Amino acid sequence: MQTSMIFPAPAQGRPPAYPDNLFRTPEAAFLYFQGKKVVAYFHGNGEDLADSIPMISLLRSLGMGVLAVEYPGYGIAGGRPSERGAYAAAESALGWLRAERGVGSERVILLGQSLGSGVAAEMARRGLGTRLVLISPFTSIPDMARRIIPFFPARFVRHRFDTLSKAPAISMPVLVIHGTEDEVVPFSMGERLSHAFPHAQLVVVPEGRHNDLSTLRAVEVRAALSPFLKF
């Protein structure tokens, strides 16, 4: 049951918009929009590439290229969802970006939203980007599990996405964006993470909830991203 709870994917098979921008490797499916700098975007656990268009549009409005990655078990990617599979898909897509488009890690900003924050943080730990953005991030899946079942034994969690333990070793600039009224991932988790990275800043979105930051709160998110992406 853990897998279905952590990865409540929409029904598979929904094709995303922009079919001409859809690419595949043996491990990944992703949308790619060219740019001098490219934001690698990793979506939340209840979304797929078809739901990623608002964030992709926001990033493109800032002049960014975008690489939006699908996870196994989601959308048109096939396979079964898992932490390891999500990391493999992300690394494969970033490898394609480097090999096929000549975009190295020095031109890549890693951006993860909700579950995607765990994927983005792992790619940062592997040195596959130069900056990291976390939107509505959680500290770890065991911490989230303990919110539902206090004193839940962490050793029983199969998919851990433990960003908090990785944070001290990630020295790149980090931007954390979190809504104060997030009803899924508490604001305190984003606040805690912002103190765990060596070089992080926290942008607070007053009254922001978990699923409205790229739509109803897009103006605030865009204002936070714009200066951070200009380097």
Summary tags:
231 residues; Rossmann fold; 8-stranded mixed beta sheet
Q: In words, what does this structure look like?
A:
The protein contains eight helices and eight strands; from the N terminus they run H-E-E-E-H-E-H-E-H-E-H-H-E-H-E-H. It has 231 residues and is α/β, with parallel strands linked by helices. The protein has a single domain, classed as Rossmann fold. An eight-stranded mixed sheet has the order 1-2-4-3-5-6-7-8, sandwiched between helices. The longest helix is centred in the middle third of the chain and has 19 residues, at 83-101. The chain is globular. The termini are far apart.
TL;DR?
This protein is α/β, with parallel strands linked by helices and 231 residues long. 34% of the residues lie in helices and 18% in strands.
Beta-sheet strand percentage?
Answer: 15-25%
- Largest beta-sheet characterization: 8 strands, mixed
CATH architecture: 3-Layer(aba) Sandwich
As residue ranges, the low-confidence spans are none
Helix and strand composition category:
alpha/beta
Question: What is the CATH H-level superfamily?
Answer: Alpha/Beta hydrolase fold, catalytic domain
Major sheet strand order: 1-2-4-3-5-6-7-8
CATH topology: Rossmann fold
